[in-house]
Amino acid sequence: MIEVVANRKYRTLYCVGFSLWKRSFVYKYVRDRANCVRFIRCASLLTNLEPTDAILVWGRKSDLFVDSTFNGVDVLRMEDGFLRSVGLGSNLRRPNSLVIDEQGIYYDPTKPSKLETLLSTHCFSEQEIARSRALIETIRRSKLSKYNVGQTGEVDFRKIAKGKVLILIPGQVEDDASVTLGCVNVKTNTQLIQSVKTSHPDAFIIYKPHPDVLCGNRKGGVAEATLSKYCDLVVTDIDVISCINAVDELHTMTSLSGFEALLHKKKVTCYGLPFYAGWGLTKDIIKHPYRNRILSLYELVFASLVLYPSYYHWKKDQLTTPELTIDSLESERLLKGAYKADSAFSSKINTFIEKTKRLIETVMT
CA dist 66 to 38, 76, 334, 348, Å? Predict the structure, then answer.
């Protein structure tokens, strides 16, 4: 039986700035980390903290205020995990995994994070490598991704590519922190598409818009004229893993799909500094100043999918493992069928429904 890793326990964990819909699922993930969990609207309301207390914020929110005001008290940062859900977080699908980081956050390469420290220093055992190898094989077989959005199945781009190298470009949310913090010269989807076309003029370029952008929830659209000029194909309803398996390479700024492409044995070029770059597994346009360790894919995966995230089993109402999370996501995907990205209109309706559910859960918690 694979056990869930224990974490430090605090007297009181103050969860700062979380929206009502997030509170019900956040509490499930952190209730074992403190004797008392309290949700606070803003950090300025915090007073009389003890060294045994801690503060939890979502991502980089409240960084300046928290970092400058609460020295000596642990500040934890929370974000979505890498095997998240069947459906979009922006449509309020609750997460099957979250990361909770006591040092920084994985998508901010300007500061150390718990994940980067693990990747830099952890001594991986033979048992851990064996578990990672089995986990990778399970993910390849299941073809799971972070959101599991779109039609799954075999895709054949080679008939229309006529022998050209197939390159997939996954679109990103342009105001996402991983882009604003992890990119230098290439910071938009348009710039990425142009850069790939310039460096690979003879390749067959496939662009896949980010589902959050496609359904109108987030920023990152690309002009039709740009797509027509630089891309050979734009795909929307096909899930990202099916696309990855059908191409030779993936080029990205900082998208998690680059990590997923590594799992499926594809060449990956990074134009920014995602957490999986700088370890000898990707072609990096930008060099990270202090990632000097060469890692195997098994080591990268064990740290990123086993040691770093927390997983929650909603039916069993308890923390769980990545292996059981994969089983749960597979079952949910099979039950729902291929989840399609919502249109802008249906997205608003579904978001309202999910908000109502989460509000009821919060009241009942």
Answer: 16, 10, 43, 33
Residue 238 phi, psi dihedral angles, 5° rounding: -85, 135
Q: Which tens digits make up the pLDDT trace of 82-116?
A: 999 988 776 788 999 999 999 999 999 999 999 99
Question: Using CA atoms, how far apart are residues 238 and 218, in angstroms rounded to an integer?
Answer: 19
CA distances from 309 to 84, 182, 281, 313 (A): 10, 20, 21, 13
Strands 233-234, 166-170: pairing is unpaired
Count of other CB atoms within 10 angstroms of residue 208: 23
Which amino acid is present at 92? Answer: L
Contact 233, 207 (CB under 8 A): yes
Residue type, 21: W
Q: SS3 string of 226-272?
A: HHHHHCCEECCCECHHHHHHCCCEEEECCCHHHHHHHHCCCEEEECC
What are the tokens at 54? 């801690």
Query: How far is the C-alpha of 70 from the C-alpha of 49, rounded, in Å?
Result: 8
pLDDT at 44: 83
**How does 111-150 read in b/e, with b if 16+ C-beta sit within 10 Å?**
eebbbbbbbbeeebeeebeebbeebbeebeebbbbbbbbb
Half-sphere exposure of 40 (CA within 13 A, CB side): 19
**Could you give the CA distance from residue 147 to residue 226 in angstroms, rounded to a whole number?**
27
Torsion of CA 212, 23, 94, 90, to 10 degrees: -10
Residue ranges, the chain, pLDDT below 50: 1-4, 338-339, 341-347, 362-363
